[in-house]
Amino acid sequence: MLEKDIERKLILEVKKMGGLALKFVSPGFDGMPDRLVLLPNGKQAFVECKAPGKTLRPLQEKRKSQLESLGSLVFCLDGAEQIQPLLSEVMRGSES
């Protein structure tokens, strides 16, 4: 499965839940995750989509740590089977 296929499936699953999976672009601030996932009841997370088996680059790891230190949920998604568990965790929120 290609990265774009995983990303498309994420968008579809988020939409089914009544949410949005917005393409996130931050000019001048490289390494930010691909998607901002917004779910009902104010639940949100950043998601970086990767091809199966691929991992975050060092700058992406740094951005993940920065966002998490601010209380944001941040995920690296490299398989379609990870989508439902990821969305369940987002719905539980950062208190888990």
As a whole number of angstroms, the C-alpha radius of gyration is: 12 Å
CATH-derived topology: Trna Endonuclease, Chain: A, domain 1
Work out the helicity level.
25-40%
Second rung of CATH, namely the architecture:
3-Layer(aba) Sandwich
Instruction: Please mark out the parts with pLDDT under 50 across 5 or more consecutive residues, or reply none.
Output: none
- Estimate what percentage of residues fall within beta strands: 15-25%
How is this fold's topology laid out?
Blueprint: H1 3-16, E1 20-23, E2 35-39, E3 43-49, H2 58-69, E4 74-77, H3 83-92
Parallel strand pairs: 3-4
Antiparallel strand pairs: 1-2, 2-3
Written description of the protein model:
By secondary structure, the protein is of the alpha+beta class. The chain has one domain (3-92): 3-Layer(aba) Sandwich (Trna Endonuclease, Chain: A, domain 1). The protein contains 3 helices and 4 strands. The protein has helices spanning 3-16, 58-69, 83-92, and strands at residues 20-23, 35-39, 43-49, 74-77. A 4-stranded mixed β-sheet has the order 1-2-3-4. β2 (35-39) and β3 (43-49) form a beta hairpin. The model has no long low-confidence stretch (mean pLDDT 95).
List keywords for this structure.
96 residues, alpha+beta, Trna Endonuclease, Chain: A, domain 1, four-stranded mixed β-sheet, 3 helices, 21% strand, globular
